[in-house]
Target: Regulatory protein 5335
Amino acid sequence: MSSTPALDSSNSVTATTEIMDKTRLLLNLWAMSGTEGEVKKSELTSKVKQKRNNKKIGIAQTVYEELKAAEAIKIYKQNQTPMVSITDTGKRMLIDALSSPDFVFDGTVIAARLANGLVGLIRELNQGITSATFVKKAAIASYDEFKAIALQVYDQLNKDYNFDNLVPIYRIRRTIGDQVTRSQFSEWILEMQANDIFQLIGGSVEDSASDKIEDSISTELVGLRCYAKRL
Model:
């Protein structure tokens, strides 16, 4: 398994600023996205502005482009509105950056003291869960293992978000993440339907977002299936 990309750049003060900008963007995106998992790009850009020499400085477009190239974020349009979401890779990159003992927020950032408290908390939590995270993210090797994890994820999502037993397939796929390939996920969840464990139901996702539809299930035989119901 490949390692998580680092928030790295060329050395010098410019590089430090770029790393800070990437970390601030990811942290704000993570905090703003909440249960929806996505935010408007314009709102995110406005949120991460900070004052330098009494002037508000925004985030350069290159920061978005580099994070997208590193697969830390996804950028797409929803009803012609540019949207941004953080990926599992982006979350790991953010935790890695915040866990560095050399990382501190600029003192001019609003609520820097609170932000640094968050950094300390994440460092503490990360030290305690690192080994468990690696176990959780281990590759799924068999259908039986996938079935057990998929059912666990289904039950947890259904409980946490009150999905009323119709859990979006894209949520299950994204929660399982890179523990399994996209094609293997599709094959095994269809096998769970064939074995009368899940019923995969059609329709569309709540906002018809293209990335959520892409992360659902679609085959020539059954068409688009966006929700799973446990039988």
Notes: The radius of gyration is 20 Å.
